[in-house]
């Protein structure tokens, strides 16, 4: 895995992202699949990264970069959060039971249904953030899912 520091253009948020290879980063960037997790901006570039250098001369010790930490959650709050996530996952799963996976053909099929070229049905699939914004601007009814959905053939 390769870790990149990425930065959005609109708010200059810097965040960390992991990729299997540099080619994976380039592929996802070209397909418009990268977006800032803080503001949703799809204009994301690699941020300047400080190299991890040894702390003493030829020592192999690596300088540790401190990450901001979130405030600790109480046990009750953790239980509430877990219950909320489980409820959302269950609701999404039930909603997708009668929906058809269309993969990367989502935008094309959603437009066809919107313009009456195809019968309406419940579908789900993949769409780049910029394409989703274009669909919404055209008045196509789409809704993002709270959790990522993997293709049916990828399930264990």
What labels would you give this structure?
globular, two-stranded parallel sheet, single chain, alpha+beta, 4 helices, 156 residues, 3-stranded antiparallel sheet
Can you give a write-up of this model?
- There is one protein chain.
- The protein is α+β, with helices and mostly antiparallel strands and 156 residues long.
- Among the domains are: 2-46, no CATH class; 97-151, no CATH class.
- The protein is built from four helices and five strands; from the N terminus they run ββαβαβαβα.
- The protein has helices spanning 22-30, 75-97, 106-114, 129-138, and strands at 2-8, 14-19, 44-46, 100-103, 123-125.
- β4 (100-103), α3 (106-114) and β5 form a beta-alpha-beta unit.
- The longest helix is centred in the middle third of the chain and has 23 residues, at 75-97.
- The model is unreliable at 59-63 (pLDDT under 50).
Give a nutshell description of this structure:
The chain is of the alpha+beta class. It has helices at residues 22-30, 75-97, 106-114, 129-138, and strands at 2-8, 14-19, 44-46, 100-103, 123-125. It holds the Pfam family DUF1178.
